[in-house]
Amino acid sequence: MNQFANSSDERNWAMFCHLASFSGVIIPFGNVVGPLILWSMKKDSSELVDREGKKSLNFQISMSIYIFVSAILVIVGIGILLLIGLALLNLIFVVLAIVKTLNGEDYQYPLSINFIK
């Protein structure tokens, strides 16, 4: 049962907000900038895109903070393990968000701090 009665186009744009976080692999801070651009473009035209874009942005900002702290902890050795774990969690959680969004289901990112409400 779909929780959202939205069009396929809206679900696609919402999915692109999550998918855009992978631009961070190529562009520095692309994990935040990509979803920010898409969310800014479509937030006023779709409630679904607004909601999913905020979720993606909040999660990617949170992950950036966690990665920054982990990078500092590389000095004491534990940071390397944390960086690897965070990279895996980011990949897994974003893929889950993409699939859930395309299926019209709600997905809440774990470990996400709500900066944008």
UniProtKB/TrEMBL annotation:
InterPro entries reported in the protein's UniProt record: MamF_MmsF
Subcellular compartments: Membrane
Membrane topology summary: Multi-pass membrane protein
Keywords from the UniProt entry: Membrane, Transmembrane, Transmembrane helix
Transmembrane segments: 12-38, 65-98
Protein's name according to its UniProt entry: DUF4870 domain-containing protein
Species the sequence originates in: Paralabilibaculum antarcticum
